[in-house]
Amino acid sequence: MRRYLFAVCLLILAFCVFVPSARAHGDDEEEDIYEMSLSQVPPAPIVGKEANITLSIKDKNGVSTKSVIGVIIVKQLKVKQYVGVEPEVEEIEVYREKKVADDAGQVTFSYTFATDSEYDVEFAWGSNENESVGEIIKPVKITSAQVTKNPMRDILLYSLIGIGGVIVGAFATFILLTATFRRKN
For residue 11, is it within any domain? Predict the structure, then answer.
């Protein structure tokens, strides 16, 4: 029984350590025949602070859209009312700027989000802007209580918690191994 418990513990540890993590931002979104990935600094834009946003656009074959002339459009999404299960959303255009994609198919711009509502960020091109890719962004509103006064204290605290977890895990593994191989008289 203890062998199985030990094997399960090792499998859980291996799963936690070796499973690749998913990217929080920059996941690909497919629209018609184009794919777009979005990256932003900071990763979760803060209300009232400037965010640098990069859109990378490729076709389905992975070829970058080089030197495409288009328009960056940012629309604030406001829920007007709920009709059944789905909300009725009003789109208010708050930003529009003409941009050219570079040789890597990337378009970069900066924007300061005014509220913590959702925003639709799009890059549109073609005649009458008939081709477009976009993504929804939700900025974060930070209150003064959430701002850490001493970040080094938090880093030290989390490091000690992590080291303590490793020590407890090593001790538990030692106990399991010695209990399994100990002879009974």
Answer: no
